[in-house]
Write a structure and sequence with these properties.
Protein name (chain B): General transcription and DNA repair factor IIH subunit TFB1-3 isoform X3
Distance between the termini of chain B: 43 Å
Number of strands of chain B: 10
Number of helices of chain A: 8
Pfam families (chain B): BSD, PH_TFIIH
Organism (chain B): Coffea arabica (Arabian coffee)
Subcellular location (chain B): Nucleus
Mean pLDDT of chain B: 71
Largest sheet of chain A: 6 strands, mixed
Oligomer: heterodimer
Keywords (chain B): Nucleus, Repeat, Transcription, Transcription regulation
Helix content of chain B: 40-55%
Strand content of chain A: 15-25%
CATH architecture of the largest domain in chain A: 3-Layer(aba) Sandwich
Strand order of the largest sheet of chain B: 4-3-2-1-7-6-5-8
Mean pLDDT of chain A: 80
Shape of chain B: flat
Structural class of chain B: alpha+beta
Radius of gyration of chain A: 22 Å
Low-confidence stretches of chain A: 1-8, 273-295
Chain lengths: 295, 589
């Protein structure tokens, strides 16, 4: 999609920033009285332009996270001249059209806000980063920042955890700026495991200040800067069968898949009952105690 | 009253000649290889000092019987019976005795004297006992757990070690003992000169001799050649010292004169040809891809001493070339000395016998030479290295990007994040009420989204992007957040609550944590409860767990008030686990 960065001597503070913008229309319409998408965009565009100004070699790539699809809407290194962030607007509009066309018939969904496809955009960001890694020995230091507000979709738990682990392995930190109402357990875990920053701004109309103070810091400077640290991380997982978030559950002793109810057969690794006969057999007696390990 | 468990055990006990005998009270003290018993009454004839070598076995009464007895038997038939005040004391001694007996080379068979149901009948080999003891000695946490559970009678030895087989089987290779390196100070040639007479005394210790032989191969060769054929050792060293003295006076002419007279002395005064050869070989082995121009001029052994290629203007007398070989360069000497010190000790011979030292060194040098000469592999390696250094980037295949290795984290890291679960349960109930409600249809939602985008397209970004007051508030808020975190969680962002607690409290908390883990592990492994044995085991575990509960409460109270909240958050899952265990136990039927 874009030519690889020419290999020059890169200083420590050159960064490649992958920005994942939450474009869930339900979420934005539900939050409308407090904070509008246009205000949000103005803060974000100003932020992106400032990143591009910090260093000539900085690169910014923006991925929009919709409810049916995800797509690249901006890449600062495409074209001969480094572009301003405003050029993402027409592409974003296109993306919104596309996303709308992909959604099923107009169902008047008055039932809560669905979740956006965070796992998809995380994967796209990681793929782009891998391509940059293979472009040559010298490249900017990549990091991912998620501007997310939609609630967590427990159905995406497995996919998101997989992307988090691959980000950890490639040493790419995932920063999270949560603009929704509640905390996001997935993003907390993501930032904790990959060594990024997790922040839930108290004042959304000061979003630009949060972005510029905390998220504009490059990886090299983070070694000697104090950034806000969350008090704790919500490590809860979702069960594999119903995708509910659970505190206590049953775990298959072979593949460590998590279930909320006792299972005859593990759906992930397909452990046949006769192997675990002694354990499953107990379920038929009066003994209701946990046969598999309890979390 | 026990000191470190493995070193010395001191307990009050009564020595009895038979089980019925009331016994003489006294103090029993046990060390690794012997035990002694001193009666309280000094006039009593009972004084024992017995080595564990003679003790072949030990018997003991079961816990809970009337007397806590320990019977140490010898193979000739004699035995020593001790009665203790309580069972834990006796158990401590019993374990100590078992390990001591094992250490003195015999397998300890433990036979309960009144055998009801044989609980564990383990045949422990001495090696196994030794490994266990060593493991306990090395890991103090493990030792504490062992003490708490096995000595406290909650778990038996077999159960405790059953889950730790991997630790026992590890072949911990003997860490090489630390060896003393060669001294770095150069043997100064300042001999002891007493002002009265013209005598100069040199002191040569075996260490110094080793170093001389290592640094000056010509001297070593001379030693091997001359001694004991041509001269005794003492004469050899006298000559050597004379040569050193001459060098120290820096009187080259005198040196030349003496060398002319005494050919053996000349050996010490001249340049060391063996060193020269070694240096040449080393230069040849230098990586040719290093950007260094190494040529004849770098043969520093033969350079004129005062410069190393640098022209000098000050007038040093230019001596006749006949005196050149008798000059010595300090820098050469220093380099050689440094090389030898860094190489370390290459031989393992006792330093007393000079000849054997010389021979050993000569042998190693020969071996090295032979190895280098015949080392085809070395050449191949060098070629490979050259090709690696001179690679052409464009023709290389792309290399895979660097990846972080799999990190198996210390479970203690998650200790602090458990408190977040407490937060989240709070947080959910608060924010759960404010569930987002989207009462708009999908199409309308998308419409409003697109409207927002076009609004910006036409109006541009708002000016100013952010209100200055709002920005100020945000900055203040962030700063406060960071500083309060620092206050609560410590200066170091990686520091945790644990570190801010006093050391004793922290140790206790961690110990409780690991003991609860151990108890839970054993508890769940004994499910489903099918036999009586499992039932008793589960009961014991449950009781042990309920004992930890008040201790945790105590810790919570003892902590400073500002840390109390965080500590109670830390402690909460531990308390919960004990409650759950109770519940699980109750509803097992």
């Amino acid at each position: 999609m874009s030519p690889p960065v020419p290999s020059k001597i890169l200083t420590d503070d050159v960064s490649l920033l992958m920005v994942l913008i939450d474009s869930n229309p339900h979420f934005w319409s539900s939050i409308k009285p407090h904070f509008s998408f246009s205000k949000f965009l103005s803060h974000v565009l100003a932020f992106l332009n400032s990143i591009l100004l910090l260093n000539q070699l900085n690169q910014v790539v923006v991925i929009a996270t919709g409810i049916n699809s995800c797509g690249y809407v901006f890449d600062s290194s495409s074209g001969s001249v480094s572009q301003r962030a405003e050029s993402l607007l027409p592409k974003l509009e296109e993306f919104a059209e596309n996303d709308e066309s992909l959604s099923e018939r107009d169902d008047d969904s008055g039932n809560g806000v669905g979740s956006s496809l965070l796992s998809g955009s995380l994967s796209m960001a990681l793929c782009y980063i891998q391509r940059v890694f293979r472009s040559g020995p010298l490249h900017p230091q990549p990091r991912i920042i998620c501007l997310h507000g939609s609630p967590d979709g427990p159905g995406q738990y497995v996919a998101i955890m997989n992307s988090i682990f691959s980000a950890q392995r490639s040493m790419v930190p995932i920063d999270s700026c949560v603009i929704g109402i509640q905390h996001s357990a997935f993003l907390q875990q993501a930032s904790y495991i990959t060594g990024g920053v997790y922040l839930k701004p108290q004042q959304l109309d000061g979003l630009f200040q949060y972005l510029a103070t905390v998220f504009a810091t490059d990886l090299h400077s983070r070694n000697f800067l104090q950034l806000p640290k969350p008090v704790g991380v919500d490590f809860r997982a979702s069960c594999f069968c119903h995708k509910n978030t659970i505190d206590m559950g049953f775990i298959c002793s072979v593949c460590l898949s998590i279930f909320c109810k006792h299972q005859k057969k593990c759906s992930t690794c397909g452990m046949l009952p006769n192997v675990c006969r002694s354990i499953f057999g107990q379920a038929q007696t009066r003994d209701p105690s946990a046969s598999q390990q309890r979390k | 009253m026990a000191d470190k468990q493995q070193q010395v055990v001191v307990k009050r006990a009564r020595h009895k000649s038979s089980v019925k005998d009331p016994g003489t009270p006294g103090v029993l003290k046990m060390t690794k290889d012997r035990f002694t018993f001193m009666a309280n009454d000094p006039s009593s004839p009972v004084k024992l000092n017995v080595e564990f070598r003679t003790i072949k076995g030990h018997k003991f009464t079961k816990d809970g019987t009337k007397q806590a007895l320990l019977n140490l038997t010898q193979d000739q038939g004699g035995n020593y019976i001790f009665e203790f005040e309580n069972f834990p004391d006796r158990n401590v001694c019993k374990d100590f005795v078992a390990s001591a007996i094992a250490l003195s080379g015999e397998a300890g068979r433990t036979v309960p004297e009144k055998s009801a149901v044989p609980i564990q009948d383990e045949q422990l080999s001495a090696a196994e006992m030794e490994r266990r003891i060593k493991l306990l000695q090395e890991d103090s946490d493990l030792q504490k757990l062992h003490k708490q559970f096995v000595i406290g009678g909650i778990l038996s030895e077999a159960e405790f070690w059953a889950t730790r087989k991997k630790l026992l089987e590890q072949n911990y290779s003997r860490r090489p003992k630390q060896r003393v390196a060669l001294k770095n100070d150069m043997w100064s040639t300042k001999p002891l000169a007493d002002g009265q007479s013209n005598r100069v005394t040199f002191n040569l210790t075996p260490e110094i001799i080793l170093q001389i032989f290592a640094e000056k191969p010509a001297v070593r060769q001379a030693y091997l050649n001359f001694v004991p054929n041509k001269m005794t050792e003492k004469e050899f060293w006298t000559k050597y010292s004379r040569a050193e003295y001459l060098h120290s006076t820096k009187n080259v002419i005198a040196a030349a004169a003496e060398a002319a007279e005494d050919e053996e002395l000349a050996v010490f005064l001249k340049q060391d040809d063996m060193l020269v050869n070694e240096a040449r070989k080393k230069i040849r082995q230098v990586d040719p891809t290093l950007d260094m121009e190494a040529d004849e001029g770098d043969d520093y052994m033969h350079l004129p001493i005062q410069d190393h290629g640098l022209p000098r203007n000050d007038n040093k007398d230019v001596l006749d070339s006949q005196y050149e070989p008798y000059r010595r360069s300090f820098s050469q000497h220093l380099n050689q000395h440094a090389a030898v010190v860094l190489q370390g000790r290459v031989i393992d011979v006792e330093l007393g016998d000079t000849r054997s030292v010389a021979e050993a060194l000569a042998r190693t040098k020969h071996a090295e030479l032979a190895k280098d000469a015949s080392d085809v592999y070395l050449d191949k390696e060098r070629l490979e290295r050259i090709s690696r250094m001179t690679e052409i980037e464009d023709l290389q295949a792309p290399r895979d990007p660097a990846v972080a290795p799999l990190s198996i984290k210390d479970p203690r890291d998650y200790f602090d994040s458990q408190q977040a679960n407490a937060f989240s349960t709070l947080g959910d109930t608060v924010s759960g009420a404010k569930q987002l409600k989207c009462s708009v249809s999908t199409r309308e939602a998308y419409c409003s989204l697109k409207e927002c985008i076009s609004e910006i397209k036409f109006q541009g970004l708002t000016e100013p992007t952010i209100n200055s007051e709002v920005a100020f508030k945000v900055l203040n808020g962030l700063a406060q957040n960071i500083s309060s975190n620092k206050y609560h969680l410590g200066r170091n962002p990686n520091e945790s609550i644990l570190d801010s607690l006093p050391k004793i409290t922290r140790e206790e908390l961690l110990l409780h944590w690991s003991s609860i883990q151990e108890l839970l592990k054993h508890f769940w492994s004994s499910y489903p409860i099918t036999t009586k044995y499992l039932l008793t085991k589960a009961t014991k575990l449950k009781d042990a767990m309920s004992q930890i509960y008040p201790k945790l409460q105590e810790i919570k109270e003892s902590v400073q008030s500002d840390l109390r909240h965080q500590v109670s958050l830390l402690v909460q899952p531990m308390l919960q686990s004990s409650v759950f265990m109770d519940q699980a136990f109750c509803c097992r039927l």
